[in-house]
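Homework help board

Subject: predicted structure for assignment chain

Our instructor gave us this sequence and asked us to write out the predicted structure in token form, then describe one feature. I got the tokens but I'm not sure how to describe them. Can anyone check?
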Amino acid sequence: MQRISSYDELARLREFSAESLEKQKKKVLVCGGTGCVAGGSLKIFDRIKQMCEDKGLDVCVELKHEPHDDNSVGLKKSGCHGFCEMGPLLKIEPLGVLYTKVKLSDCEEIVEKSIIHDDIIDRLLYKMDGKSYQHQEEIPFYKKQTRIVLANCGQSDAEDVLEYIAKGGYSALAKALSSMSDQEVCNEILESNLRGRGGGGFPTGKKWDQVRRQAEPVRYVVCNGDEGDPGAFMDRSIMEGDPHKVLEGMLIAGYATGAHNGYIYVRAEYPLAVSRLKTAIQKAEKLGLLGENILGSGFDFHMHINQGAGAFVCGEGSALTTSIEGKRGMPRVKPPRTVEQGLYAKPTVLNNVETFANVPEIIEKGSAWFKSIGSEKSPGTKAFAITGNVNNTGLIEVPMGTTLREVIFDIGGGVKNDKAFKAVQIGGPSGGCLTSEHLDLPMDFDSLKKVGAMIGSGGLVVMDESTCMVEVSRFFMNFTQNESCGKCVPCREGTKRMLEILERIVHGNGVPEDLDLLSELANTISETALCGLGKTAASPVKSTLKYFRDEYEAHVNEKRCPAGDCKDLCVIQIDPALCKGCSKCARTCPVGAISGKIKEPFHIDPDTCIKCGACIAACPFKAIKEA
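My token output:
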């Protein structure tokens, strides 16, 4: 690739690349997201490539500066398609067909029928209620989505900078550099009311303008790609699937704030994201889109990647910048704020991956366009990772203000196994649990805050009727306590005490006074902890105490788990009316807790039973149950 040094050269390169892309008779997009890679998608990619070449097809795995011959086949490792439940996924254009749960054994049929010819393989299509869906946009999972940040994920080669350029990539950067001042860029982002997608919802343009106004000439742009929430993978998928969009957003931020160096802080547990970001940076540098005198504008910007060791606390801004500096990642007292003294004590723009990925679209299409999507005070879209007891798990993007009901039941396909919906944990360990009474609540920053929850980074964990909410609180408190940096007493000691109380309760040793003590500790931590993560550490407990206090009281007062999930509070019993006396349960029990006579009902000694459930699985008559 040759370096381009002007806006005109970028426009010509876009024209050539778009023509080359257009000449691909078929485009085969094999999902290269982490989930599908784990399911063998890269082997599928290699097999299809080999089979196409064996049949004499011109296979193009990346665009060139000049157009390819007519009728070439574009074979691409795309980013995450989002429908993780159905992976590995493979899409073929211009047929618009999406194949699900593809196996290596399917490759020959796909090449012969759908790539060489235009035949559709019905058995590989997504099916619901007996209906086959040929086109991705018709599938209920995708139908209600509005994909802006994720627009290229699953639709383009994740590692091909020329394909990104062919689809309009870096045109927003060129617009900003050629026709907008730094203040105009800040004003456009401020006018759009883009709020930080990392959880806090702070106005992005305001943050940028504060850095731009600092007297200190050295400034930095930092991208938070740490994403430590359990069940969250939005930022990872964006970095894997459309890394150049993140780079372009950071470049625009650098120009707007007078910064010349950008740092992307990524979890080391995201090796694919790290690899694709490195590849994107190298290709952008070779083209002259990073480095010195970008596009002949006189603007210089260099990009760096730092890998974090997986500490949840490094998702907090001051801890993250401290970690980049090579020190132990721990929050500090504010003020001074990051915009005044951030990385290396210099003014710093710190936003998360999804926030930066919104920037190119806003600069290109304008703030009015962005504000036409979503709700009035929370415009735009939000990416969510929907997991748990829901039929369609995966990565989605919906307008701000979309209700939980639409996400869980329309996009997510409802609760698994036709069980009743019970709750959804939104915002990870810093968020809260919402119930059926909140299903029609619009998901935006302000609405969720009013009910004691938060969008956070965008994790949605759906829970059904069999979920114990006390155990959910214990799980998140265990996570938070383990991840506490230990710098401040409220978080270090308070979360430990709360975890001890929750452990007692789920093991049947709780007392009524524990519930008041939990509330008191939760409020104290929220009011006195040093950083934002500490202040929200008790949120899952506070919300479950508010909406599911009856479950806590059943654990404490009745020594009973209503959901039957806490083993220490369950009793395994044999129904004498169903027991045939076959003795399979007694022969299976590892501790000899079951006794009886053949052809007569058997009995379980509750004092000896370890509640392993082996007898339940062994009983052919379904006579043994937890009570």
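Reply (TA_rk): Your tokens look well-formed. For the description, you could write something like this. The two ends are 68 Å apart (CA to CA). That's the kind of observation they're looking for.
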